[in-house]
Amino acid sequence: MTAGMQAPEGPFQFLQAGMFTIDSPVWNEPAFWGAVILAGAVVTYVWRLLGVLLAARIDPDGIVLRWVRAVATALVAALVARMVLFPSGLLAEAPLAARIGGLLAGMLFWRFAGRRLALSIAVAAGVFLLLEYLFA
């Protein structure tokens, strides 16, 4: 604090200059943690409450939810394509043919074997591992 200024008293005494340093007393203030928990609960439960109130009014086959499903599917497809074409970490060491082969095998199995997601993922992983072994 500068000369002539007095630090706040009471539960808000942590509101002063340098309050977020590692040795600051703010981390031991119950008021601080109470405010953090309250703010987190409010921002979470407001949206949940709105979802509960609006869920009965939303048509599951309506244009809005079809758009939401399309955007969600596009995001997942983009992330999978990014992982296959521009991998990072250990996946980058695998041959491109193994990554694409595993992806195609999983997609084809999902399409022609009754849309079973867990089995499709297992087939994709198995084909990927086989192709990686063969190409490495």
Q: What is the number of helical segments per DSSP (H or I, 4+ residues)?
A: 4
Q: What distance lies between the first and last C-alpha atoms, to the nearest angstrom?
A: 64 Å
Which class do the helix and strand fractions yield? mainly alpha
| Helix/strand order | HHHH
Radius of gyration: 26 Å
Number of strands: 0
Question: How is the main sheet built?
Answer: none
Share of residues in strands: under 5%
Measured as a percent range, the helix fraction is 55-70%
Pick out the low-confidence regions. Answer: none
Q: How many domains, as an integer?
A: 2
Average pLDDT, rounded to a whole number, is 87
Q: Tell the overall outline.
A: flat
Description:
About 60% of the residues lie in helices and about 0% in strands. The protein has helices spanning about 30-55, 65-85, 95-110, 115-135. It has 2 domains: about 10-55, no CATH class; about 60-135, no CATH class. The chain has about 140 residues and is mostly helical.
Which terms summarize this structure?
2 domains, 136 residues, 4 helices, 62% helix, mainly alpha, 0% strand
Quick summary of this structure?
With 136 residues, the chain is mainly alpha-helical. It contains 4 helices and no strands. The protein has helices spanning 30-55, 63-85, 96-112, 117-135.
What is the strand and helix layout of this fold?
Blueprint: H1 30-55, H2 63-85, H3 96-112, H4 117-135
